[in-house]
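So, who can interpret the following?
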Amino acid sequence: MDKQIEIEAVLTRYIPFVKLISMLEQGFFIPKANLFTDSWEGSLHLFNGEKDNFQTENQLIAAKEWVYVSCWYLDEPESHAMWNSYGQSNDSLAIQTTHRKFKLAFGRSRIDMHARFFPVMYQKPNNAYHLYDGKKIPDWFRDEYTVRHSIFNYLPLQLFHKHEAFSFENEARLVLVDNDATLEKKNKRLGLHFSIKDTREMITKIILHPNASAWFEDTVRKLINDTYQLDIPICKSSLVGHKN
């Protein structure tokens, strides 16, 4: 696990319009892992068809309460597949930042948690038990990290592995473990927020959906330029006119 993300790498998120408003109003949101719609996240079941032996299913559910995950497309050019998967409405868009700006926003938001930001590794559906033997993912922000239960070490590692069928996502993930992590109680928070100021400053570009209407483009421009008075470039998609 020695593959690093270049500090000037471009990060992209394909999101509905309402999420952009939420980011600008409340700050960039990082949900806890159990809010993912894919219940397989964090397990090895997909690789070999049987349950892994790193934790019980109940332990996995409990641990997801205390682990937060933010997913990004690790590339600058637009992806037709990503628009289809995550920008299904014509009233959607993509936001971009860089690794440097994302990390700076995280630090300035004073989220004091163990953080790992790393590319997802896509695996073939074979025996997966060897994936974690003696392997570590480099720390992103904090160097010291200790928890009472080993699952909080295993789960972040597992969240960086996905089935090769998802490789089109070319994903990088920020994974955080709450300092109060425990299997004995539930986490009352749904997730974490970057500060509003740093969220707004980290966005370097907004790309409109390939089928965005003139009305939607005008709405986004007025929101960014007039309502929030932000100097963020707003671009039409390079895929305008391309059909599924």
Notes: The radius of gyration is 19 Å. The longest strand covers residues 10-16. Residues 214-227 form the longest helix (14 residues). The helical segments are 17-26, 45-48, 57-64, 80-86, 99-108, 151-158, 196-202, 214-227.
